[in-house]
Amino acid sequence: MEPRIKAAIIGYGNIGKFALEAIKASPDFELGGIVRSARPNPKNETKHLGVPIVKDIRELKDIKVALLTLPTLLVPQAADEILAMGINTVDSYDIHGELADYKKKIDHTARKNNTVGVISAGWDPGTDSIIRCMFEFMAPQGITYTNFGPGMSMGHSVAARAIPGIKDALAITMPQGAGIHRRVVYIEIEEGYDFAKTAAELKADPYFSSDDTTVIQVDDINNLIDMGHGVSMERKGVSGLTHNQLMSFTMRINNPAVTAQIMVAAARASLKQKPGVYTMIEIPIIDYMAGDRDTIIRKYV
Amino acid sequence: MEPRIKAAIIGYGNIGKFALEAIKASPDFELGGIVRSARPNPKNETKHLGVPIVKDIRELKDIKVALLTLPTLLVPQAADEILAMGINTVDSYDIHGELADYKKKIDHTARKNNTVGVISAGWDPGTDSIIRCMFEFMAPQGITYTNFGPGMSMGHSVAARAIPGIKDALAITMPQGAGIHRRVVYIEIEEGYDFAKTAAELKADPYFSSDDTTVIQVDDINNLIDMGHGVSMERKGVSGLTHNQLMSFTMRINNPAVTAQIMVAAARASLKQKPGVYTMIEIPIIDYMAGDRDTIIRKYV
Fold first, then answer.
1. Looking at the structure, do residues B9 and B95 belong to the same domain, yes or no?
2. Which chain B residues have a beta carbon less than 8 Å from that of A242?
3. B46: Cβ–Cβ under 8 A, 6 or more apart, which residues?
4. Residue A30: which pLDDT band, with cuts at 50, 70 and 90?
5. Of B18, B24, B136, the CB nearest to A242
6. Does one domain contain both A17 and A96?
7. Residue B19 pLDDT more than 70?
């Protein structure tokens, strides 16, 4: 039996909590500790978890890989710093248009410090990216539609909360088919603000202006929260000269739970790669799996 | 622009014909020629294809990779011989229980001759194997059901034809859910044989005895042939401690067309691997794709 992989969790919010569960449920991992910011969210209590809670990863010993369960915008700097300390990183950086440049920026740090970073390891980007590529090489001509939801969009909820007069918000992504989505945004209004004016401001925000958006006023957002999410990917394409090749992939999942589990798989894979930074499509699928290679081939191929 | 990858097709049956189409439709490939046996099936005419038709791959020049579109039982020997000639191979060897040992047997030849073999590159084993692994690392506890069909089973059709008194046969795989299948076998009876006795013999054959099998007599099998097939893979599992994570993958495809297209993708990937023999789960997904790595990451991740 190999020694367990000692991992740290950086940030203890939604995904961090599920990362703790995923690490504890994985027989090849052990949790070395949790790194929290100077001003942790009081909602997320860590007192009784029975693991070291620290402010800096350097206070923990023998960490092989860090799961960066931070808000996306804080991820690049944290990855760069931790890769430079000789520790592998995994994140679920989710800005599709920027991840290729982010990868390039930290690649040098990883190579120089003999470490591995796996970026954008979640379900989209992440496992959906693997499926999109498979659809493409199985039927190279055609269209793939990625339809998200129904489910909470963290990014859109945060954007809605930033609008003056919105006390709390929950943005739901509703798939309309063919990769088109509409947004339904539930908001709590701060006293003294007008609903109609605030809703109009939200709809004009760049985060929402290109989508069909409905805004609904509620008294308490907390009653609406459900972490379920989903995706349906559809391809109709051509293999060789043969049309009408139909493929579809569907998921209905607890969003942070599957994200955290994928990050644990990516952490495992990080220890099998040469120094550098990788997206999930650049790593063989077998490397994400626990256990002996020959056994995996016999069982799953 | 890179030079095109020169490929040969070994065997010109069902999959060989679609391999020709897939190679011709791939902008990064060119077809160097087709290798046929001494006694080719007269149904599969090659005269007007406009490519060299030879009896031995050594008659073709500068072949980088050979697609072994042969009956599965002929694949291992052909792979070993061609890998020893310094040419990469791709096959869709489909005996699940034996592929790991087959891989080990030819691995030495590949390493010694600085070549790469990709084995069992079809849809199952093959792309389905990739999905099975993904389901597993996304929700490590749970059950994955792989339901095939409805569609023609080549293996069962061949087994039925081997039974005395059966002139021609078509075996259909019907999914019953939860990974359970029944077989419906259409047979043409040779003169002087009794249908009931022949059907009983078929049902007792080891190929059929463990499945619920229905045998139907017809006058002409050819009227029934349709190359469509399908699969539905379902997983309900646990990510971390979170139950009820639902995932499904479904395909409805022309079987030899998608198999041939996957073999072309594997041929492309073979040129990016170190010497040795690989199943599809051991190769990064990006290596199956045509084009520049950075562009692929920007477009599909």
1. yes
2. 18, 21, 254, 257-258
3. B12, B34, B36, B40, B53
4. very high
5. B18
6. yes
7. yes
A215 and A280 belong to one structural domain: no
Do residues B26 and B288 lie in contact, with contact meaning Cβ atoms separated by under 8 Å? no
Identify whether the C-beta of residue B121 lies closer than 8 Å to the C-beta of residue B266: yes
Report d(CA B259, CA B69) in Å as an integer. 10
Taking the C-alpha atoms of residue A281 and residue B219, their distance in angstroms, rounded to an integer, is: 50
**Least Cα separation, residue A40 to chain B (angstroms):** 23
Residue of A nearest to B119 (CA): A301
- Higher-confidence residue of A207 and A65: namely A65
CA distance B166 to chain A (A): 32
Tens of pLDDT, residue by residue over A124-158, are 999 999 999 999 999 999 999 999 999 999 889 98
Q: Determine the 3-state secondary structure of A28 from DSSP.
A: coil
pLDDT at B1 over 80: no
| Total domains, chain A | 2
Chain B residues within 8 A of A289 when measuring between CB atoms = 133, 136-137
| Shared-domain flag, residues A20 and A98 | yes
Question: Residues A43, A77: one domain?
Answer: yes
Which residue of chain B comes nearest to A145, CA vs CA?
Answer: B300
Domain region containing B76: 5-125+255-300
Q: What's the average model confidence in pLDDT over A27-45?
A: 88
* Residue B29 to residue A137: CA distance in whole angstroms: 14
**Is residue B72 one of the residues assigned to a domain?**
yes
Give the one of B100, B123, B133 whose C-beta lies nearest to A298's C-beta.
B100
Interface test with B, best of A134, A232, A254, A259 (most B CBs within 10 A): A134
Among residues B214, B148, B150, B211, the alpha carbon closest in space to that of B187 is found at B214
pLDDT digits (tens, 9 = 90+) for B239-268: 999 999 999 999 999 999 999 999 999 999
- Give the neighbor-by-neighbor strand order of the sheet with A141-148: A141-148, A228-239, A242-254, B242-254, B228-239, B141-148
- Domain-located, residue A246: no
User: Do B190 and B111 belong together in one domain?
Assistant: no
pLDDT band (50, 70, 90) for residue A164: very high
| Interface probe, candidates B17, B281, B292, chain A, greatest A C-beta count within 10 A | B281
What confidence score (pLDDT) does residue A154 get?
82
Summarize pLDDT for A85-132 with one digit per residue, the tens. 999 999 999 999 999 999 999 999 999 999 999 999 999 999 999 999
CB contact under 8 A, B301 and A262: no
Same-domain status, B187 and B116: no
